[in-house]
Each structure stands twice: as structure tokens, then as C-alpha cells.
Amino acid sequence: MRRDLIFILISVEIMLNGAGVAFVAAGSRWGQPDGQIMFLFILAMAAAEVAIGLALVLRLYHHRHTLDADAISDMRG
Amino acid sequence: MLGLLWLIPAIPFASALALAVLRIPRKLVAWIAAGATAASAVVALLVTFSFLGAPPAANAYTQVLWTWFDVGGLRPEIAFYLDPISLIMTLVVAFVGFLIHLYSTEFMIDDEGYSRFFAYMNLFFASMLTLLLANNLLLLYLGWEGVGLCSYLLIGFWYRDPANGRAGRKAFIVTRIGDTALVIGLFFLFHDLGTLRIQELMQRATEHWPVGSSAAVAAALLLLGGAVGKSAQLPLQTWLPDAMAGPTPVSALLHAATMVTAGVYLIARMHVLYSLAPLAQTAVAVIGAATLLIAGFSALTRWDIKRVLAYSTMSQIGYMFLALGVGAWPAAIFHFMTHAFFKALLFLAAGIIINAVDDEHNIFRMGGLRTRLPFAFWTFLIAGCSLAGLPLVTAGAFSKDWIIWGALSASNGSPEFWIVGLVGVLLTSLYTFRVIFLVFFGEAHSEVTKRPGYAMLIPCFVLAFLSIVGGYLKTPFGRFVETALPWTDGTRVAPVTDLVSEGISAFVFLLGLYLAYIFFLRKKSYATALASNPAGDLLHRFWFSDWGMDWLYDRVFVQPLVWFARVDKGDFIDGFYTGVARLNEFAWRLLRRTETGRLRWYAAGIAAGAVVFVAVVLFL
Amino acid sequence: METAFYIAGAVAIISTVFTITRLNAVHALLYLVVSLLAVAVAFYTMGAPLVAALEVIIYAGAIMVLFVFVVMMLNLGRRAVESERRLMQGTIWVGPSVLSALLIVEVVYLIARVGLPGLPPGSGSGMLAPKQVGIALYGPYVIGVELASMLLLGALVGACHLGRPVSEKAEARYDGNSDGSRARSGGSVVRAGVGRSADAP
After folding, report:
1. A29 to chain C, minimum CA–CA distance in Å?
2. Is C179's pLDDT higher than 50?
3. Residue C99 contacts B, CB cutoff 8 Å
4. CA–CA separation, B245 and B241 (whole Å)
5. What is the pLDDT of residue C143?
6. d(CA C58, CA C53)
7. Which phi and psi (to 5°) does residue B604 adopt?
8. Is pLDDT of A50 > 90?
9. A43 located within any domain
10. What average pLDDT does the structure give for chain A?
């Protein structure tokens, strides 16, 4: 479990990529383009998410000067 | 004219309703309230004249208004029954009630709850008259409950002081115990005899129940329970002294003249039943005798003028019960009449005194008021003599001597009762003149600030007059009620004649007067010496605390009940509901830990959830 | 073709493992780029040239470059590496390893149960030309395209907004609200992190 936010985002990218691999493999197994189409959507979504996520990380770093995920647990209770 | 009978309770009911619901200016309130009672009294007078002038068949008149309900064979009606007893009692209650209302228009003038007071008083008045005029026991019970309610409301009238509320609650709860016995008695009577109409009831009772049968005894004892509660006799007498927390007119009307005599009325009404159950009748007499002694002793020690009068009331009703118990029915009703006069007068005069010395109740702090409140002095003196039984001049003497004579000579009488009655006369005389000497003679200990006005003086004057001349009505009275209340004597041969008995009681009265004179006027040192003597002090404290009854009841009934209620609060059914709440709380505390706000926790949660979910889908 | 697939797969797995065990963020990112390239090769061998190309261009080319830019901008420095080293002990791998192992077991079980009818990719199935993908995309899946474009628009707007320079006063206000004892000087994962972890959950 990495506490660094950057590493968390990296791990998310890895996961999305893995899911995409599964989709493409399934699509090519049955010889249909649907798998690749699914991968395209995943790609688009990953791009959007990365953009926003990194912008948030930058903001957070400006405020808290730390990238520790445990440091931003203000919404607890 | 007899058809106007229903107006007697109806007018005060309407007036009470109007006073309770509408906003009426103060001046008008007095007119409406006193006017309603005056109207009732006038109608009662008219009805009396009509009854005397042209007596209806069997000397009884029934007026049926409507049927209350009809369920399972029980068919009570709103119906009024007029016969000599109810006529006399209605007349007395209406008249004395009117006078007391008149008195309280001035007595309560400064109070903020003026119209509330009169609403309650009128409601009480109407309920009492319903009780007296009722044709069947259920309507009587309605009136019974009504007077109980009004008693509670009026005792706790000055509700801002919690002690008054407690006194009201005590009165209500103790009489409730009696009321429960009464209701069970009503159930029993209906179950066995099939009707609650009084006249039919008594007829069927004589037919179905032989003399001394256990059913008759049971019913009679149950009704006696109710009467004992309402009339503050042993063992349910503890509420009456505390009921003096209410305003003085309330004490005068409810707890002297009318409500507390409801029990006497009940037993007199059902006298046939008691004749069928000699055991119960003896119980009545024994209760009356015991109460009159206990109350008499307690009255000797009290320093609050109203409490002395309360114990005195208890004692006098004991006399009435004694009369009922020995079979001298007319004597009981006659004593009720004279007692209403002089006891109400005593309370009203006491009210004048209390008002005049700035709400001081302690007789040891009054004194020498003879010269400064002459009117109060003379009226109180007349009423006191009537109470103690000054022979030939006062009404109380006539009625009391009649009872004492009946205790000896009536069918259920015995010499022991006679002696008890005479001892009671001694005690009565003693405590009455104690109060008179302490309050009106001697040195003054307090200042007189207010003088009574006409509205307070006139009723006292009228009642004083009646306290004197009321006694002369004895013989016509006896003849009048004979049809309804036969005098069951003549079966015993008394060792002394009635004149001798009266003479002895007169002697006892003078003895009490003399003793009071010695102890409380001449040589006060005797009294203080007696009180400081350890045995005397013990007796004093014992009698002061009402023979320890309050303490006893508290220990035996109240404390265990309170303890039980407290234990019961944590019962297991409740525990079930609180257990649900506590379970919720526990789950909340558990789940609270998962909301840490830490990202990694949540990610781990997602991962674990995914694992579980896939496993569930795969394997189930 | 098959051997190419297996080699590419092995490279991808190994470089991913390296990615998540590096202490330095930039090193991890570079390993991730390698992993993505290997996956692209695997895509090509599976007969999906379009997505292979897209993987390289967009995923490795745009997204990873964005990551690298941001990490460079954060300028974490050596202290971050030190703190990461201190934090990365063996014990922290236990939980994730267990969960992942369970997941792998489940997936393997699933595949084994359903059976894998006929395996080798692309053998006889042929390449799925981009033209086909395009026709399918703008045919039945055109709604998805529109939604994806809206999503990207939203991301664009959001990133623009979040990336705005914040005035110093507002910044101070924000910092005043939060716990002032938080470390202000050069970003240290350690100091703030340790302070945090000392609290009870």
C-alpha cells in the first residue's frame, strides 16, 4: 500500500490498462471489434481521470505540501 | 311544581359550563355563580312546598329525564328521585351551598383564579345535588365521582404551591380506594340482583337475600368501603386534615357540610341493605365510634385552626356513622343537617379570622380577638356551642343527644356505644372551647388588618340563626322522614330514659367546658406541665400525628409501591426496546471506525469487496 | 507470433512489478512506460493493430508524459525518496498480496471452469483492421463516442479550473483553516505522515 498519491494514481493506471487488455483479448478471440471499442472508451476515461487527478494532486500539494494520502483524512468520523 | 326538580342540578351545571368556557368579567362571575346556587335553592324551596302541600303517592316522586344507556340488561336512566331524605338533604345542601357561595364572592375577591374557582364550586354543587337526587346507583356514582374530582381541583386550587397539589392528590387517591370498593359493590349488586335502581334494589334484596346472608354482608361492606373513603372515616381518613390546604370556603362546603356526608347519605339510602346485614351494620357503628374517638384526641393537640375543625368534622361524621350503625337512621340525617349549619359557620368564621389576621392559622398566635372581631366571636361561639352541645339552646345538642340516646336504645345499640358517645362529647367540648379560649380570650398576639364585608357577614348571621333554632325541628323532622327512614328502636329496653341520657350529656359538656377553662384560660401552666411531662409529650405527639396513621400508611403502602415502580422501570420488556437502541449504538460505533477519511482504507475496502463479491458470484 | 506474445507479456508483468516497488516516482513512471509498450506489442500480436497504436500514442505518449510533467513540477527531491524507503517495509505488502492472490485464484478458477475453447489469438482469425473498428464505433457505439467526448470536455474544463493560480490571500485563508502545525517547509511526506499515523483511526 503506497501512501504517495502519485503512486496511487500510477496503480490506478495499471489497473485500467489491465482491464483493457482483458477486453481486447476477448474481442480478438471472438473476432469482433467490440473489445477494441471498449478499450477505446477505457482509454478516453483514463485520460480524463488522469487530467483531473493530477490537477487535484497539484492543488493538494500547494496546500498541504505533502503527498501523503493519510494526511488528507479530514473527512473522517 | 315537582316537575321543576331537574332544574336543581341543571342550573349549576349550566353555570359551571358557562364559567369554564366563556370569558366573563369579574363582577358578573359573582352574580352568575351565586345566582345559580340561589336559583337552585329557590327551586328546592318551591319543590319542598309542593311536596309538603300535596305529597305524591307513597311519599316519593320520580322524574325520569332520559335513558342513559341500555347494555346487557343494565338500563340506568337519568332520573331523579325525591323522597323525604333526599328532599331534606337537597334543601340543606342547596341552602348552605348558596350561603357559602355568597361568602366566597367576597373571600376570594383578590384571587386571580376567580372564575375558575366558581366554575369548580358550581360543578361541585351540581354534582352533589345529582348524587343526592339520583334514582339509581350509577347516577349516584356519577355524582360521587364528580364531587371527588371537584374536591381534588379545589384542594389544589392554589396550584403554584406544590404542597397543595400533593394534598389534592392524596385526597383523590385515598378516596379512590373507597370508590373502587364502591364500584365493586355496584357490580356485585347488579350481578346478583339485576338492577341498580335504588328502590327496586332494596325490594329485591329483601326478597332474595335472607337476613345475615353473606351476599348482603359483602355488598354492604363494599358500599361501606366507598362511604368510608368519601367521609374520611377509619381507615381512609388521612386525607381530610391535609385537605385544609384549599381555600376556606372549600373547606366549609366540601369538607364540612356536604361532600363528606355523601357516605352518610349512601348508607342511609341503602338502609334496607344494612338491615339485612347486621354484621355490616355493626361494622358501621364500630368505625364511627372509633373515628370519633381518634379524631377527638387528635383535635386536642392541633394548633392550626382549620385542622382542628377538620378533625372535628371527622369526629362528627363518626357520630353520624355511629347513628347509622345502631339503627337510628333519622338521627343521623338530623345530625347531618345541624352539622352542616354549625360546621359551615365554624369554617366561615374561621375564614373571617384568618383573613383578618393576615393569613395566620396558628391559634397560639391569635388571642384576645373577642373585642376586636366581635361578630366573628359571637358567631364562632354560637357554632362552637352547637358543636359541643350546649343543651336546649343549640341545634347540635338536640341532634347529638338524639344519637347518643339512639346508641343506647336503638336496635343495634349497646351501652358501650353510649359511653363512647359521651366520651366524644367530653372531647368535643374540650377541644372546641380550647380553640375559643385561645383565639378570643387572653392576650393578643397578632394584629387585625382587615374587616369582613357584608357578603361575608350575612351568611354567617344566617347560619348562626339556624344553628340555634334548627334543633327545634326535631319532632316534625322525625315524623317527616318516618316513611323513608324508619326508626328501628323499641326492641331494646334501655337502662335509662332519654331525659336522663340528655342530662348526662349536658353534664359532660359542662365538664369539658370547665376543663378547657382551667387549662387554657386560667392556669395555662397546667397545660404546659402536662405537655412537657414525658408521657404527656409522647401522647401529644402521637395524637398530633393522627395516631401515626400517616406514618403507617407511608411505610406499608407507599414506600413498597414506589420501590416496586422503580424496580419495574427496568423490566425486561423495556429492556428489549432499549436493547434494540443499544444494539444500534454498538453497530454505529463499529461502523464509525471504517470512516477514517484515509484513502488507503477505502481502496483496501474496494479490493476486499471485489474479492468477496466475485467469490459470492462464483460459489453461490 | 505466439512467442512474441509471451515475451511481450512477460516483459509487461515484470516491468509492472518494478513499477510498484520503486521508491522514486520517476523511476516508477519509466518502468510503467515500458510496461505499456510491451502491452502494445501484445495487442499487435493479438490482431488489434489499432489499439496497439492508440496505446502507444495516447496511453504511453500522452498520459504518462503528463504524469512525468507533474512529478517534475512537484519537485519532490531526495527527502521523498528517503521517506519512502523508510516506509516501504516488507510488512506493507502482506495485505495487498493476500487480496490479489485471492483474486487471481478466483479468476483462474473461473476460466478453468468455463473452459478455454480454442486458444491461439490471431491464428486464422486475422487482423481486425482499423476500418472495421471504425465502422463499429460510429455505427452501434456512436452514443458511447458522444459520451466520451462530453466526458473529455468535462475533464478539460475541470483541469483548467483546478489548475488556475490561487492568490496568496486565499491560500493563507485555506491554510489558516486547516491545522497550522502541518509542515510548511519543503514537502515532506515523512513529517506530516508520521504525525498523522500516530492518531488513532
Report:
1. 6
2. no
3. yes
4. 8
5. 92
6. 8
7. -60, -35
8. yes
9. yes
10. 86
Question: Dihedral (C-alpha) B456, B458, B459, B463: value to the nearest 10 degrees?
Answer: 130
Element (H, E) at B66: strand B61-67
CB B507 within 8 A of CB B419: no
Mean pLDDT, chain C, whole residue set: 78
Estimate to the nearest angstrom the gap between the alpha carbon of B282 and the chain centroid.
Answer: 22
The residue with greater pLDDT, B23 or B93, is B93
pLDDT tens by residue, B479-505: 777 666 666 554 556 666 767 777 887
Percent residues over pLDDT 70 in chain B: 95
B chain contacts of residue C102, beta-carbon cutoff 8 Å: 611, 615
Using CA atoms, how far residue B145 sits from B88, B114, B127, B189, B256, in Å, is 22, 24, 8, 19, 18
**Which residues face B410 on adjacent strands?**
B489
C-alpha grid cell, residue C68 = 512525468
Q: Which residue in B468, B308, B455 sits closest to B379, CA to CA?
A: B468
Q: Do B608 and C99 touch (CB under 8 A)?
A: yes
Q: Name the more confident of B188 and B529.
A: B188
Identity of the residue numbered C132: Q
Distance CA C190, CA C124 (A): 56
Q: In this structure, is residue A33 part of a structural domain?
A: yes
A35 contacts C48? CB cut-off 8 A: yes
The chain C residue lying nearest A57, using CA atoms, is: C70
Q: What is the pLDDT of residues B536-581, one digit of tens each?
A: 777 777 777 777 777 788 788 888 888 888 877 767 777 788 888 9
Mutate to test the interface with A, among B591, B595, B600 (most CBs of A within 10 A): B600
Q: What pLDDT is attached to residue C201?
A: 38
- pLDDT the model gives residue C92: 75
Q: How high is the ipTM of this complex?
A: 0.87
Per CB-CB distance under 8 Å, the chain B contacts of C110 are 614, 618
Q: Which of C28, C73, C185 sits opposite A7 (nearest CB)?
A: C28
Residue A17 lies in a domain: yes
Which whole number is the average pLDDT over B216-244?
86
Cell of B253: 362546603
pLDDT in tens, C82-124: 777 776 666 777 878 888 888 888 888 877 777 666 555 544 4
Q: Compute CA distances B308 → B24, B305, B516, whole Å.
A: 37, 5, 15
One-letter amino acid for residue B47 of the chain:
V
Residue A40: give its domain's CATH number. Answer: 1.10.287.3510
Lowest mean pLDDT among B191-205, B417-431, B456-470, C168-182: C168-182
Alpha helices (H) in B470-548, listed in sequence order:
474-481, 498-517, 524-532, 534-544
Q: In this structure, are strands B61-67 and B77-82 parallel, antiparallel, or unpaired?
A: antiparallel
Residue numbers of the domain that contains A17? 5-65
Chain A residues within an 8 Å CB radius of B603: 1, 8
Best CA proximity match to B291, nearest among B312, B315, B308, B309: B315
Cell of B506: 349536658
| Grid coordinates belonging to B9 | 342540578
Mutate to test the interface with B, among C97, C103, C107, C108 (most CBs of B within 10 A): C103
Structural domain total, chain A: 1
pLDDT tens readout for residues B371-404: 778 888 888 888 888 888 887 777 788 888 888 8
**What residues contact residue C43 under an 8 Å CB cut-off, 6+ apart?**
A21, A24, C49, C51, C52, C55
Q: Which of residues 11-70 of A touch C (CB under 8 A)?
A: 11, 13-14, 17, 20-21, 24-25, 27-29, 31-37, 39-41, 43-52, 54-59, 61-68, 70
CA-CA distances (angstroms) from residue B117 to B37, B105, B249, B359, B499? Answer: 14, 10, 10, 19, 47
State residue B183's pLDDT score.
92
Residue B249 has pLDDT above 50, yes or no: yes
DSSP-assigned letter for residue B62: E
